[in-house]
Design a protein that fits this description.
The longest helix has about 30 residues. The chain has eleven helices and no strands. By secondary structure, the chain is mainly alpha-helical. It has two domains: about 140 residues, CHAD domain, CATH 1.40.20; about 140 residues, Alpha solenoid (CHAD domain). The protein is globular, with a radius of gyration of 21 Å.
Length: about 300
């Protein structure tokens, strides 16, 4: 069992106020965002795009879950602005994943590789266009203002008053768990939109646990491992759905029996992931996850 984090953590203490904990989380994610910016702007590092998007998503979740512990409206001004950065990077990441998985499919058959080359070329050019748009945004005054504002905010002098982590973190995480549990009946309809929302709820739960990694027991890593597996399953489902939408929007001259065969392949992949999700949910719902989470939270009660 993993017993320590392989990555930097916020450095939260049991006695931190929840406001200070939120500042530490936002400070860490802000630093990760800046660390990836040059790679994103260079355009040839797909992991930089991915990592910057993850930092933005974690920042958005932090803004959401820590909002009650900050003065009214102090976090509200960042939500839409942080989301805008993610939206600029989103189309690039969608195409990166699409091209990566299309390439894997093509490699299975030399004929596929040849016949889908024009499709890959089309989306490669589309990625270049989205990258130009992203660079324009990252070089804009709008983005510069966001960076400066976040820098000033995350360096705010820490405040020791208000609810503390020991008394409040468990409630925060419990709220995220309840949000996931709220989908227990809805997801059984096997509706893609519902499963997409469930994916977001799982992600918010996982991030909320990870925010408090410094003060939780080692059992958290078992719980997080399962959440990652569920997230990967629903993420693959999302990738397949995005691929279908991209292929549906292909100009007519790129559509042929081979692109249709690939479309059918991705549709089958999506349907199989939907059909197999009940097994993933059962692993989450069988009690093991909540037992591990409960044990991970025990240090907060000391």
């Amino acid at each position: 069992m993993t017993t320590e984090s392989p990555h930097p953590t916020p450095g939260i203490n049991h006695t931190d106020s929840m406001q200070n904990a939120g500042l530490k989380v936002l400070r860490l994610q802000y630093g990760k965002m800046l660390a990836q910016q040059a790679g994103v702007q260079a355009g040839d590092d797909i992991e930089a795009v991915h990592d910057m998007r993850v930092a933005m998503r974690r920042m958005r979740v932090a803004l959401r879950v820590f909002k009650p512990y900050f003065p009214k409206s102090s976090l509200k001004r960042y939500g839409k602005r942080v989301k805008a950065v993610g939206r600029v990077l989103g189309p690039i990441r969608d195409i990166d994943v699409f091209l990566e998985k299309t390439n894997l499919y093509s490699e299975q058959d030399a004929q596929n590789q040849q016949t889908l080359a024009s499709v890959e070329d089309f989306f490669g050019k589309a990625r270049d266009e989205f990258h130009v748009e992203a660079n324009l945004y990252l070089e804009s005054q709008t983005y510069a203002d966001l960076v400066k504002s976040l820098e000033n905010f995350t360096e705010t002098e820490e405040i020791d008053s208000g609810p503390i982590v020991r008394a409040s973190a468990q409630k925060l995480i419990g709220k995220r768990l309840s949000k996931v549990r709220g989908y227990e009946q809805d997801w059984r309809q096997a509706d893609y939109v519902t499963l997409h929302r469930l994916r977001i709820a799982f992600k918010r739960l996982r991030y909320s646990i990870e925010f408090f990694e410094d003060v939780l027991g080692k059992e958290q890593y078992v719980a997080i491992k399962l959440l990652k597996e569920i997230q990967d399953h629903l993420g693959d489902l999302n990738d397949a759905q995005v691929a279908l939408l991209l292929l549906e929007d292909l100009p007519g001259e790129y559509k042929n029996p081979h692109s249709q065969a690939y479309y059918d392949f991705r549709r089958g992949e999506r349907d199989a992931l939907v059909a197999s999700f009940p097994d993933m949910w059962q692993r989450f719902a069988n009690g093991g996850f909540e037992n591990n989470l409960e044990m991970a939270l025990r240090p907060l009660n000391v």
